[in-house]
Hints:
The structure is a homohexamer. Helix content of chain A is 68%, strand content 0%. By secondary structure, the first copy, chain A, is mainly alpha-helical. Chain A folds into 2 domains: 1-74, AhpD-like (Up-down Bundle), CATH 1.20.1290.10; 77-139, AhpD-like (Up-down Bundle), CATH 1.20.1290. In chain A, helix 6 runs antiparallel to helix 7 and helix 6 packs across helix 8 (114-137). Chain A is elongated, with a radius of gyration of 19 Å.
Amino acid sequence: MGSADDIMMEAGGMSTVKLWTDEDVAGAPKVSAVFDDIRATRNSDFVNNFWRALANQPELLQRTWASVKAVMIEPGLLDPLTKELIYIAVSTVNSCTYCTHSHTAAARAKGMTEQQHAELLAVISLAAHTNSLANALQISVDKEFLVD
Amino acid sequence: MGSADDIMMEAGGMSTVKLWTDEDVAGAPKVSAVFDDIRATRNSDFVNNFWRALANQPELLQRTWASVKAVMIEPGLLDPLTKELIYIAVSTVNSCTYCTHSHTAAARAKGMTEQQHAELLAVISLAAHTNSLANALQISVDKEFLVD
Amino acid sequence: MGSADDIMMEAGGMSTVKLWTDEDVAGAPKVSAVFDDIRATRNSDFVNNFWRALANQPELLQRTWASVKAVMIEPGLLDPLTKELIYIAVSTVNSCTYCTHSHTAAARAKGMTEQQHAELLAVISLAAHTNSLANALQISVDKEFLVD
Amino acid sequence: MGSADDIMMEAGGMSTVKLWTDEDVAGAPKVSAVFDDIRATRNSDFVNNFWRALANQPELLQRTWASVKAVMIEPGLLDPLTKELIYIAVSTVNSCTYCTHSHTAAARAKGMTEQQHAELLAVISLAAHTNSLANALQISVDKEFLVD
Amino acid sequence: MGSADDIMMEAGGMSTVKLWTDEDVAGAPKVSAVFDDIRATRNSDFVNNFWRALANQPELLQRTWASVKAVMIEPGLLDPLTKELIYIAVSTVNSCTYCTHSHTAAARAKGMTEQQHAELLAVISLAAHTNSLANALQISVDKEFLVD
Amino acid sequence: MGSADDIMMEAGGMSTVKLWTDEDVAGAPKVSAVFDDIRATRNSDFVNNFWRALANQPELLQRTWASVKAVMIEPGLLDPLTKELIYIAVSTVNSCTYCTHSHTAAARAKGMTEQQHAELLAVISLAAHTNSLANALQISVDKEFLVD
């Protein structure tokens, strides 16, 4: 598998923008501050390609990271794993290869078992099935479902 | 609000197929068996329009209801509310009006609070935001995310 | 049902553009020529709202009607009903309310039975189911499927 | 082309789950039973990656294969090639790389000519064109299209 | 048209959440602060339903409004009308009825002519057409298009 | 990067149809005429893979190129760069890898700066964010947004 993986890595050139190396980041204080916070928050030196691509847009990088921190990392009423499952569901329907990979990995890192993954897939695919039926049938909403 | 609601109900004629009344169902044993099982399983006399539209396709009705029972009702590793949250996420991205309404109602019936709904919306909209970025940037997948 | 239908008709004002009446069309030769050809080709006086909305964009109206004639009306290797079934499938996935309604009606006008509609729905919903699985699993393409 | 194909095969590691080899399958009776039925039904020893990925979820594997058999293989009112054309249409709009490849190959195996493929593409792209217009214009449905 | 419009207004009950009235807002300082800023920034007393629905989620309301201000209102390199055209394009493909209506109205308020709207529709529908072809054909990217 | 690029090129075999070489084109007058016009119009000898794939469908090739010329190349009220930005937006939401790459390259060729690209991404991702909220909340359209 090694050589295929290496090609994936080299394939960084296949993004529509340059992926910033740590050296590129070092010379850009705004970007550097976000990368430092990503590393500190995650307690890891690894910064994935999504942020290296967004580095070309410092304001968007800042805003996006701030949202990720607020929504996915700060404690809330939904537990972290549930949020990753929802993230995978959205990414799947949007046909986002990168996000599906990165959030499936994130869910596993947060404890998702293969069994839970299997149930997640069962729910996603059932919803895709009934969504297409309801859209094809243009079913009108029962008044019982409406809020007062 | 009453008159608007009534119109919604009358709007049954706006589906692309006939919505079956209980009288229609009574004359069709295959459909009737599914409706009976829906009512018994849910312990409620209410059968929503989705099933009344699918009644035109008895085999598809049977198969779809069997899947809903297996995935959403039989106990599994994901709790019932989590499954509804995932269902809402998929339905939202597929822009399915009927499913978004029916599963938001179902999630509330299973205990979803307005706060949890708010967090769900925060995750869905963050995922939509980063999905669009990853798709626009065509970011290549980090080898760290790949399974061995 | 009558009053709900009337509201649907009045709801013409809910388009993002004006729907052209026959009087509006009469004063615009480019638009008028297309409407005449629609009526002659279909052998019917009825011109549906899609064309009445596109009348605001004469060049787009012309080009779109020319494509519809070439693809959907001129004889080809796929029969007219098969083409309508494909059209419904695409419209369903794109969550296009108008197109789903208009092409389901068109398919019925070309002979689609309720049984065939049921099978169409079974195929669409199965494809939606397996599409979501393949996208969630990011399954790599078997070399057996690739063209030489 | 050989080397690129090999990389595609090696790229099995790029799925978000393990692809099961025949040896893995041999040790899992539930999975094994489905694989046996796939081979018997298709009268071929080849089992494509979709099923090798789903093998991680035996219940979902069973349910999905049962639906594929019922919808795509058992005789019905729509002929097998028409069903594949509809499948390609749905897969295209859902931007499903795997499904587009596998069902284009399946359609060719069932006799789709390049000319028929060309017409299919013409219908899909026309529908995508008019869907986007109807959605942008939010055209209201003509009462002539509604079912009684 | 009057009565249909009234029904649309009453249809506020058709959202999956309560739409906040000005009285509801008055009792919630966090929400009130955002509504005040919306009114001050837009120099108008009118606050549209999108914000009245988001009022149920004060943090999401704050973050969303902050992003709208930063991206759509603060001066940048793309002029305000161009940004609205892009917004309409995204909303159309996502089949978002509310967003298509609100941003078509916003574009008109910023000077979009019917002719410009017509050209926008021509570009959106052409892109939808070629997108579906490229996805159906799974065309591989020319190396000439890749960044170094 | 060289080897990854080469693999991309070899990956021409990964399309679902044959990509036509100049030699293939030379023997097909209908296709040849379109390729000649593409080269003359763009004043470049380079013909990208999209057209080499469409060459399998001469009528669709002709119609598609005629639309691209009319919409994207002939002067109109929207300037050429604005049209490319809209094209990227649509392609992103449709998750079209090929179109996102080719139109990002086209936008750069027409003068898009990295700063403008950054703003485009900010608008697209904000729209994706609010689209998902409006669809999840099923917000009803304010009567202020409706056309008379």
